[in-house]
Specification:
Chain C: Keywords: Activator, Nucleus, Transcription, Transcription regulation. Chain C: This is Mediator of RNA polymerase II transcription subunit 18. Chain C: Component of the Mediator complex. The complex is a heterotrimer of chains A (255), B (194) and C (215). Chain A is an all-alpha fold and 255 residues long. Chain A is 53% helix and 2% strand. Chain A contains seven helices and two strands, in the order αααααααββ. In chain A, helix 1 packs antiparallel against helix 2. Chain B has 194 residues and is α+β, with helices and mostly antiparallel strands. Chain B has a single domain, classed as Hypothetical Protein Pfu-838710-001, CATH 2.40.320. In chain C, strand 6 and strand 7 form a beta hairpin. Chain C is α+β, with helices and mostly antiparallel strands and 215 residues long. The chains are: A mainly alpha (255), B alpha+beta (194), C alpha+beta (215). Chains in contact: A-C, B-C.
């Protein structure tokens, strides 16, 4: 018995704390709306909702905790109702409630839903009871369709926005990644720079350096005055025999 | 500067107290001979030489058949040659060193090097350099007279073969290296090592 | 007399051990369209070290050789020879470049081993007789900037023509190649961070990144 009481006490304390947090968050939000409505923008306002949802989550965590007492089994009974002003009550509720009178009880200690709400619930329940399986299916399908439609619209809008921003960026594009790769591979590997003016038989089975490369018969150097030396450039893979047609390669690089 | 590298043996040491000359530093002309590699037929030999007169340079001479290609490079070239030594198949590397004192006498520079090939003494090389001139033709006679003054008849009056075709060209450090290489080659041949 | 002089190889191996030889290159590469290159040059002129005579230009010819070291599974050794076409009397440059390593996200730049050696102009004949063969070559022409130890080049690559017209070079692509590089001894990763920070300043004009060009 005592243990349960203690549990109840601690649980109640935790719940009260959370509820207070929630209350302060809502108060902050209202404050914001009332005083800062000129500078308020949607993302900032959404932050408030995020906070509130956080508090609600922690509250629900406590309530669903194993050690939390089953509050459904407990009822709050007013022990003493009087129309007189109660200072302590005023203090505890920050000036909102001054008397614990009979008209408060149905509002604050209500367990059943409001009468209006209750009536609506009744009509819904009768409607649902009268619904056949097929009809409900159809309704569900329709509902899904509508939701999907809205989803598509939202997606399309987002894509449009994104492409708009990217098209703005492409105007200012100053580097082309394809070109980057082309240049880097050319300088690093000779991709695109190797020529095949002279026909040479490829060495088989050798991935690296299987292309026979050619000495340029190019007169790049106008500075070379002497006759060019004929450098025999032949490839000699040590394990592979190949037929190499040695073309006359003129080495333009002399002293 | 004209340089002739002359003679291989030299008489008693006492003659080298040259009046007026002063001794400073030592001179090394070391050489390692990497591997003859036998690709594509024909023997290639690369000689790598260092000269303490040009401490920041490496000299390399490639001999392929009767083609000779000289190269002068920075010291880091040694590292590249090291990387390339896997290319070569043979393991016959020989080192020849020519080391000894260096004298300066007015315009002449005399280097006495005792040649050792992997710890074995082979002989002595004398290098004479006449510093003011850069064309061999202009100072050959002067050098010959100077050297014959203390080496006597060990020195031939003939122009060394290497210089014969180059008497009127400007002398370069590479020419010194070529001459040393020639002599080292003769040492190698005399021991049967190529 | 004096202390015995060690051999040349001794001093070289000592230098290697004490890590003073710059044998690693840290670099990033990117490209920029021809239309935007002026803007980049302006920005670099502002960011980099001051040179009174304007940005330094270069016009080089680079040849890439390779030589086999062993049977096929072994990669061949790649060597590059570069000469200045605008200063024919300058020494030629022999360069050994290793395989690039991109590393993971924590490595800001590509790293490859690299040795730069100045040589006389007989180097191509030397390499050819040694058994190297020419893989490819190109002409590269552009501007060079320095910032501290960092070298920034903005250059255009030209394909070489088959000999008829020396001036008939064909440019590769409508872009300039942009490279940021530092040569340093191994083990200095703070430099890579500096390169990355500099690269940030060139965005969004140029996207400098690690590109693996090995096939």
């Amino acid at each position: 018995m005592q243990r349960e009481e203690k549990q109840l006490d601690s649980a109640l304390e935790a719940i009260i704390m959370r509820v207070n947090d929630l209350k302060s968050t809502i108060a902050a939000m209202i404050f914001k709306v009332e005083h800062e409505y000129e500078t308020l923008n949607w993302p900032n306002f959404l932050d408030n909702f995020a906070l509130i949802s956080g508090h609600l989550t922690s509250l629900s965590k406590i309530l669903s905790h194993d050690k939390a007492p089953n509050l459904r089994n407990l009822t709050v009974l007013p022990l003493h109702l009087s129309p007189e002003k109660d200072e302590e009550l005023l203090r505890m509720t920050e000036g909102r409630i001054s008397t614990f009178a009979h008209d408060l009880v149905p509002d604050y200690l209500r367990t059943k839903p409001d009468p209006l709400v209750e009536q609506k619930m009744l009509t819904y329940e009768t409607k649902v009871a009268s619904l056949t399986y097929d009809a409900s299916h159809k309704q569900v399908a329709q509902y899904n369709k509508v939701i999907n439609h809205v989803w598509d619209i939202a997606n399309k809008a987002r894509e449009e926005w994104e492409s708009e921003t990217s098209s703005r960026a492409t105007q200012a594009q100053t580097s082309n990644s394809a070109d980057t790769h082309l240049l880097v591979y050319a300088v690093g590997n000779g991709k695109g720079l190797k020529s095949d003016t002279v026909q040479m038989v490829q060495g088989v089975g050798n991935s690296i350096g299987s292309n026979m490369m050619v000495g340029r018969a190019g007169g790049q150097s106008q500075t070379s005055s002497q006759g060019p030396l004929a450098g025999q450039m032949t490839k000699a893979p040590s394990t592979i025999k190949t037929n190499i047609k040695a073309a006359s390669q003129i080495h333009p690089y002399t002293r | 500067m004209g340089t002739g590298s002359l003679g291989r043996t030299w008489p008693a040491k006492n003659k080298w107290q040259i009046p007026g000359g002063y001794e400073n530093g030592e001179n090394i002309n070391s050489q390692s001979l990497p591997i003859p590699n036998q690709k594509n037929g024909g023997q290639r030999t690369v000689h790598v030489l260092h000269n303490s007169e040009q401490p920041a340079s490496v000299f390399a001479i490639l001999e392929y058949g009767n083609k000779v290609v000289p190269l002068i490079a920075d010291r880091l070239f040694d590292l590249v040659i090291l990387k390339m030594t896997n290319v070569c198949t043979d393991k016959k590397q020989t080192k020849i060193e020519c080391k000894g004192p260096r004298f300066e006498l007015v315009d002449f520079c005399i280097k006495l090097g005792s040649v050792t090939m992997t710890q074995n003494f082979k002989g002595v090389l004398v290098e004479i350099e006449y510093r003011p001139s850069v064309v061999p033709a202009n100072c050959w006679e002067l050098i010959r007279e100077f050297v014959q003054g203390f080496l006597g008849s060990a020195v031939s009056s003939q122009i060394p073969q290497y210089l014969q075709n180059r008497m009127n060209e400007i002398y370069q450090p590479m020419d010194t290296i070529h001459q040393y290489l020639e002599h080292f080659g003769q040492y190698r041949k005399s021991t049967g090592v190529i | 007399m004096a202390a015995p002089i060690g051999t040349a190889m001794d001093s070289l191996s000592a230098a290697l051990k004490s890590k003073i030889i710059p044998n690693q290159e840290y670099f990033l590469q990117g490209s920029i369209l021809d239309s935007a290159v002026e803007v980049l040059l302006h920005r670099l002129r502002g960011l980099c070290d001051n040179v009174d005579t304007g940005p330094e230009t270069f016009h080089d010819h680079e040849m890439c050789f390779s030589i086999r070291r062993g049977p096929p599974p072994e990669l061949p050794l790649f060597l590059r020879v570069r000469r200045a076409l605008d200063y024919p009397d300058m020494p030629w440059q022999l360069r050994y470049i290793g395989q690039p390593e991109l590393g993971d996200k924590s490595q800001p730049t590509v790293v490859r081993s690299s040795l730069d050696i100045a040589t006389s102009n007989t180097v191509v004949e030397f390499l050819t007789e040694l058994g190297c063969r020419l893989d490819f070559e190109y002409i590269i022409r552009g501007y060079m900037f320095r910032k501290g130890r960092m070298k920034v080049t903005v250059s255009k690559i030209f394909k070489m023509n088959q000999g008829k017209l020396p001036d008939g070079m064909e440019p590769m692509s409508q872009s300039y190649l942009v490279e940021l590089s530092v040569l340093a001894p191994s083990g200095q990763n703070a430099i890579a961070e500096d390169i990355r920070i500099f690269a940030e300043q060139l965005k969004p004009l140029v996207q400098l990144e690690k590109i693996n060009y090995i096939r």
